[in-house]
Amino acid sequence: MKNFTVLFLFAFGIFNAQNQRFSYEYQFVKDTLNKTEITKELMSLDIGKEGSNFYSRDVYVSDSTMNAYFEKQIQTTGSMNVDTKIMSQRKGSMRYNIFKSYPEFKISTKTRMGMDAYKVAEDRKLAWNILKEKQKIGEFNTQKATTEFAGRKWIAWFSTELPFQDGPYKFYGLPGLIVKLEDAAKTHQFELVGVSKYTSPTEKVSPFSQPNKEIEINQKQYKKMYLEERNDPAKTIKQALANGGILQFRDQNGTEISPVEMIKNKEKNAKANNAKDNNPLELDLLK
């Protein structure tokens, strides 16, 4: 076994790091008490000359459509009617963008909580153990490596045939692209399912879920806010109402409901959802 500490060297080879899109199927278990229920989501890793962007392709496409709907509503009526029926049609659940800048591999996550957008700086480092074990995954010859991150042990399979020291989520630093990544508990897995080029600039954010202005915070601050949001999901609605905001809500049948009723519903649903959503990728968020 060879100890491999992340090196900030980047060889692009024949790919030349020009607008490569690597598509990953992300399979994960939300509830550890029901491991047979597996959720799947299509993710994209867009690699360019200056860095990469990892995001949910499902969310991006869905939110682009949703964004157009709400923009038209604002232009027509001057306000935005939050229709829970429309909102329930949103696809995907990975509502973040993870950026890695080259060659330093500075990582930042763009996400949102409530009505605000945040840019979260990542300061945790990866220390890899490269093993001798090899296998072919799809059309690529790969080699095994292990690391620990965010409260989990991870197994990665990388390929030097894809000369990028990058990978899904916040993982990077191996001598080739990570083709497959799985936690030791086998409840989170990313596997490469497609390679292509793209001509448009890398999407910066999901247009509906990300306002323009972002609040910069660190990982410790994000964890604190994550737990607060999980425990009080209606916090932002309460704050908006306290600041004089005018909000309209409708249930799934299109019937208008009061803010008080909306808050009550969110708190009730969150309690039930939290019980079944106990296995985030970054497990240490709950600790």
From TrEMBL:
Residues 266-287 are annotated as: Disordered. Pfam families: Porph_ging (PF09697). This is GLPGLI family protein.
